[in-house]
Amino acid sequence: MSYLKVDIKQKSYSNVGNKTNLISIKDLQFTQSNNEFICIIGPSGCGKTTLLNIIAGLDSQYDGSIEIQGQADTLPTSYVFQQPRLLPWRTVFENIELSLPDNADHSQHIYSLLETLGLGDFAHTYPNHLSLGMARRAALARAFANNSSVLLMDEPFVSLDQTTAKTARKLLLDIWNAQPRNILFVTHDLLEAIELADRVLFLSAAPCQIIADIAVNLPRDERSMEKILEFKASLASNKLLTGFI
Amino acid sequence: MPLTSFKYSLLSISFLLLCWYALAELINNPLLPAPTIVFTTLIDSIKSGELPYHLSITFYRLCISFFLAMLIGSSIGIYLGRHSKANAIFDSWLIILLNIPALVTIVLCYVWFGLIEAAAILAVVLNKVPNVVVTLREGTRNMDKQLMEMAQAYQFGRLKTLQHVILPQLYPYFMASARTGLALIWKIILVVELLGCSSGMGFQIHLFFQLFDITSILAYTISFIIIIQIIESFILKPLDRHAQRWK
Q: Which residue of B has its CA nearest to A80?
C-alpha cells in the first residue's frame, strides 16, 4: 500500500526580489493513502509548485520531512509538469521509454498506454510536431508508464481549450481507474478540482498553509456540471473559503 | 533542393576561376599564375607523391590536435558551465589563454619541449582549447533547467542524462566549435610546421616562399581547400542533418 506523509516546517527562498527572505511554505502537513485523488487549490505564487518539487525530491532545501512508502521497484513519484517537458530530440515513444528502467522491454506497455490516450499513431512522432494537447497527453503517458507511489500533477491541463481539457480530464480518470494510485493534482480551477478529487486542499497565500481540507463526497458517476456547481455553492457557507468561490 | 544549391556553388566557383584567369592574363606576371598552370602543377605534385605525403602528414596532425582540443575543451567547458565557483576562479585564466598570440604559444612550446612532434601538437591544442571551452561553457549555461529537473524526477541517472538530455542540447555548440576549430587549426598548424617541422604543408610552403614558387603555393592551397570541402560535405553536413531531424 503506498502512502505519502508531508510535514514541511518551513521552506524559504533567500533574495527573491528585494525581500531578503521570503517564506514560501510554513507548517504544512497532510497525509495521503489508499490511492486517493487530492486536488490542491491556492492563489498563484503561494508555493504549490514548490510543494510538488519538494515532494518529488527536486528541492531539498527545506525544513521538515517527506515520507513516501510504496512497493519495491517503483518510483516514489512520477511528475506531470505544467509544461510537457518532453525531450524534443526524442520521439514520443523514446521519451516514455527513457523514463522507464532499462532492465526490460516496455514496448507493449507503452504502445497500449499511447493507444488508450489516443496517441497510437503518434508513437514515433517528435514532440515539435504535436499539438499542446497531444504533448500533454504524452507527458501523462510518461507519468503513468512508470509505477509510482504518488503521481504529482502541476496544472497539467492549463491553457488547453475547454473541450480538450474536458477530454483530458476524462482520460485521466479512466486511466487512473485502470491503474489506481495516489494523485496530487494542483489546479487553480475549483470546478476542475471538484470534478476530479476525492479531497480538496485549500492553501493560503504565502507563507502557504492548509486552510481547509474538504472531502468531495459526490459519487464519481454523478459528477455532472450541475452537481459540481451545486457542490461549489455549498462551500460558500464556509467562511474560510471566501477567497476561493 | 540540394541539386540547386550544388548548381549555385558550382556556378559561383566557375565564376571565381574565370575572374582569376582573366586577371592573370591581364597582368601576365609569374607572380600570379593562371589557374590552368596551377592545376597542372597540382596534378604533377600529386603524381610525384610529394603533395600527398606532406598533405597527409599535416592532415594527421590536424586530426590528432582537433580531437584532443575538442575533448579537453568540451570537458572543461561543460564543467565550468555547471560549476559557477570553478568558473569564477578559472575565468581569468581562460581570458589570458584566449588572448595569448598563437605565435607565442608555438615558440614557447618549441623552446620548452624541443622541436618534436608532441610539442607541435601541444602548441596547436593549446591554441584551440580556450575557444572550445568558451563555446561549450556558454552552451552549458543555456541548458534547459526544466528538462534537467524532468530527468531527475524520472531518475535518469548520470549516463542517460548525459546522453539524452545534456549532449543533444550541446550539439549545436559542438558543431559551431568544430567548424571554427577546423578553420583555426589549419591556420595554426601551418605556422607550427613552418617554424619547427621538416615535413607538412607549412614546411613545403616555407620552401616555396624561399624559391618564390607562387604556382606551387597556390597548388598546395587548392589541395587543402578541396580537403576542407570534403570534410564539410561528407562529415559535418550529414552529421547536422542527422541531429536536426527532429526539427
A: B150
pLDDT at site A18:
61
Q: Which long-range contacts (CB under 8 A, 24 or more apart) does B51-54 make?
A: B51/B219, B51/B220, B51/B223, B53/B199, B54/B199, B54/B200, B54/B201, B54/B203, B54/B204, B54/B220
Best residue of A74, A75, A89, A136 to probe chain B, by most B CBs closer than 10 Å: A89
Query: CA of A124: which chain B residue's CA is closest?
Result: B246
What is the model's pTM?
0.79
Q: What is the mean pLDDT of residues A206-235?
A: 85
For A85, the closest of B147, B156, B160 (CB atoms) is B147
* End-to-end Cα spacing for chain B: 18
Q: Chain B contacts of A128, Cβ < 8 Å?
A: 246-247
What's the ipTM?
Answer: 0.85
d(CA A133, CA B54): 60
Bridge-based pairing of strands A210-215 and A199-203 is: antiparallel
Distances (CA, A) of B195 to B103, B118, B211: 9, 14, 17
Reported confidence tier of residue A124, pLDDT bands at 50, 70, 90: very high
